[in-house]
Design a protein that fits this description.
Elements (H helix, E strand, L loop, with lengths): L25 H16 L4 E3 L9 E4 L9 E11 L3 E7 L7 E7 L1 E7 L5 E7 H14 L10 H24 L14
Antiparallel strand pairs: 1-2, 2-3, 3-6, 4-5, 6-7
Bound molecules: nickel (II) ion.
The site of nickel (II) ion (NI) has 6 residues, from helix 2.
Amino acid sequence: MTLLTILRYPDKRLNKVAKPVTQFDARLKKLVADMAETMYEAPGVGLAATQVDQHIQLVVIDTSDEHNQLQVFINLEIIWASEERKVYEEGCLSVPGIYDGVERAAQVRVRALDLQGQPFELLADELLAVCIQHEMDHLLGKVFVEYLSPLKRNRIKIRMQKEEREIERSNSSAPYGAPRRGRTGSQ
Ligand code: NI
């Protein structure tokens, strides 16, 4: 398995819209395995293919404490969302170190294909519901900070660009690069 590079906000490739998966082959299985490893290593609870510069409708999620309940969603769609909405403190592996409240549907019913191309439906609430909606936004080219005020978003953009320059500098001077940052709960 290979650790994949996670695109960082405000990389423009995070704004690409993902296309449906049509081939359920060994290449897709390898991508899912690599994305899962990348998500666990970060660590995070969800990762969309968009975040690793693969613009297909593929999401991996594991909200378990033990990191042993990987869920794969392909060509996913939300077929029902509750009227009840909740604000949840979100983080994102593409925006490391930033956490903020986003209001979303408290429950969603999702229809998707599994890694074998078989359809399934799932009723999700709590963190899983948040995660599914957050990852689906990635597939549409949207990062969660775009829900925040323009002022906050601009501050985050400046901070990310500054960090990016620091990482580039330390990568060119130190053989092992900058230490990775992350917190459980990032998606
Ligand atoms: Ni994210």
